[in-house]
Amino acid sequence: MRGRGGLKIRILIGVAIVAFAFIKKCNNKTLNPYTDRVQNINMSTDQEIAIGLQSAPQMAHQHGGLYPDQKLQNYIDMVGRKLVNSTTARETPYKYEFHLLADPNTINAFALPGGQIFITYALLSRLQNEDQVAGVLGHEIGHVLGRHSAERIAEHDFWKTIATGASVGADAGGIVNQIGQNVLLGNGRDDELESDKLGVRFMIKAGYNPEEMIEVMRILKEAAGPNRTPEFQSTHPDPDNRIEKIRDAIREYQQS
């Protein structure tokens, strides 16, 4: 009898934890004023900035540190500041900083929450003009402004809580944890497409040619070759699948 009573208590506790997770998720609904999209976010912009600043040195270290050419770094800063100062990005509380990484092999660009933005020398060396650099940096600014990292963190916390509740009531925690990891580490197609669209808007506002965003997609596809997928592409939708959406965004913002 004790065993049955203990099982009932564990199930009730598990159900309570799961219910708490769903209630918390509903209470975390936040309207992003820069994208007009309602998101599940459980942290402040100050916390996003702090996470980005704390993580930036480690990310730089993983890519061989910063590229040792101040002229190239100044160039990246110039393009980044132009994009920020000409667009909605300047109205956000984020502290945008742009970092050129020394990594000569990893074709990548990424953004940490709060405004820390990185591009590797391997990717920069493939780009052919300033407009293409602006396309890459504009896309990453879109991730920051879109609060995509904060959204993934909140989703991860939600599934972690669900897993805790499930493991209390039964032995299903491993399955739920797996679901949570897939949510957190998926390719984020919607996020990438939103960032592409924001990047196009930023390019136009800053006076850059948005058609060069399409050329960036082609450069990434060519860099992949027949068998290898560059890191930048591996976490993003296939370039061919993004080009048409980019064309739609160009038509929309050039007419507005």
From TrEMBL:
Membrane-crossing segments per the record: none
Q: Which UniProt keywords apply?
A: Hydrolase, Metal-binding, Metalloprotease, Protease, Zinc
Fetch the InterPro entries from UniProt: Mito/Outer_Membr_Metalloprot, Peptidase_M48
Give the Peptidase M48 domain ranges: 72-248
Please provide an example of a Pfam family that matches this protein in its UniProt record.
Peptidase_M48
GO: which molecular function terms?
metallopeptidase activity
The name this protein goes by in its record? M48 family metalloprotease
Origin species, per record, is Aquimarina hainanensis
Q: What is the lineage of its organism?
A: Bacteria, Pseudomonadati, Bacteroidota, Flavobacteriia, Flavobacteriales
